[in-house]
């Protein structure tokens, strides 16, 4: 049973949710975003805002051109800026206070339905097997393409996460709100510019399969390709996604030596990747 006043909570959350349309060299992406501050700051997924600019559509139909002010591809977060004031910003809650069984609501623009709302419950908060040590808000709630970047909120409408993906079994994963707060304090971090999936390698135990190489990224400059299997970084084997992330942090603005397998995957190759220094901008 939904709590009293839930309709008002849902409508307020809808007004704080935007549609994000991003056009990069490769593709046109449509997702969602959250008005995080009244001065025109919008938070979304980095994979939604893949270019340097995006178009934002508000709940009332108004559209704005937005620039990407900061991006952290490893956290899958991006901060956008639009020229507007007095925006209906969300209130956020520390995701560490969430408990399993709590009611949550998601708002987004799935499959072209603007402002669609779904409800569910918190399943857990913590790491997910196969996705490294990073924490997720895990919810039994139905999401679809277009929900990415939109808010996951509690029964009072306080945002506890940014919806990001659905894993096997239909469990929805959201980036915790405290991770968003850390991102806003830290700003952009250097990134390799790839989308990866951990896979078992019979010889080495684990590899990171390249699913996508972002345009104008260090990975593209170094000629990494979709289908490459990353197996080492700076001479050390990869035990998880976190090993690569830690190596990128240690080599910020420097060079990474990536060992990978290509083609028949019998011979290991190595490439040097020059990482760009992180771009910083005050929130």
C-alpha-based Rg, rounded:
19 Å
Name of the top-level CATH class of the largest domain: Mainly Beta
Biggest sheet character: 6 strands, antiparallel, barrel
Rounded to the nearest angstrom, the distance between the terminal CA atoms is: 39 Å
Shape: globular
**CATH H-level superfamily of the largest domain:** Trypsin-like serine proteases
Low-confidence stretches: none
What is the number of helices? 4
Structural class: mainly beta
Instruction: Indicate the proportion of strand residues.
Output: 35-45%
Would you write up a description of this structure?
The protein is mainly beta. The chain has 3 domains: 6-81, Thrombin, subunit H (Beta Barrel); 95-186, Thrombin, subunit H (Beta Barrel), CATH 2.40.10; 194-274, Pdz3 Domain. The protein is built from 4 helices and 18 strands. It has helices at residues 6-15, 177-186, 218-221, 241-250; strands at residues 17-23, 28-37, 41-44, 53-57, 63-72, 77-81, 103-108, 116-126, 136-140, 151-154, 159-167, 171-176, 194-199, 207-213, 229-233, 236-237, 255-261, 268-274. The strands form 3 sheets. Strands 1-2-3-6-5-4 form a 6-stranded antiparallel beta barrel. The chain has a 6-stranded antiparallel β-barrel with strand order 7-8-9-12-11-10. Strands 13, 14, 15, 16, 17 and 18 form a 6-stranded antiparallel beta sheet that branches. The longest helix has 10 residues, at 6-15.
């Amino acid at each position: 049973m939904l709590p009293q006043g839930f309709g008002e909570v849902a409508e307020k959350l809808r007004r704080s949710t935007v549609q994000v349309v991003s056009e990069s060299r490769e593709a046109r992406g449509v997702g969602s975003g959250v008005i995080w501050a009244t001065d025109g700051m919008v938070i979304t997924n980095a994979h939604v805002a893949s270019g340097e600019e995006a178009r934002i559509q508000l709940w009332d139909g108004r559209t704005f051109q937005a620039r990407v002010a900061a991006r952290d591809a490893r956290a899958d977060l991006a901060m956008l800026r639009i020229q507007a004031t007095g925006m209906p910003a969300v209130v956020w809650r520390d995701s560490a206070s969430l408990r399993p069984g709590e009611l949550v609501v998601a708002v987004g623009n799935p499959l072209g339905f603007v402002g669609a709302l779904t409800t569910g419950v918190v399943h857990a908060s913590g790491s997910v097997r196969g996705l490294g040590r990073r924490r997720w808000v895990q919810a039994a709630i139905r999401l679809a393409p277009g929900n990415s970047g939109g808010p996951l909120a509690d029964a009072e409408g306080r945002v506890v996460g940014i919806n990001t993906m659905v894993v096997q079994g239909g469990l929805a994963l959201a980036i915790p709100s405290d991770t968003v707060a850390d991102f806003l304090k830290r700003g952009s971090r250097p990134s390799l510019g790839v989308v990866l999936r951990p896979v078992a390698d019979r010889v080495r135990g684990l590899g990171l399969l390249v699913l996508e190489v972002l345009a104008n990224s260090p990975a593209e400059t170094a000629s990494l390709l979709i289908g490459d299997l990353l197996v080492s970084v700076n001479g050390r084997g990869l035990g998880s996604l976190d090993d690569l992330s830690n190596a990128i942090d240690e080599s910020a603005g420097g060079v990474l030596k990536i060992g990978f397998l290509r083609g028949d995957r019998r011979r290991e190759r190595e490439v040097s990747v020059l990482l760009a220094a992180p771009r910083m901008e005050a929130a």
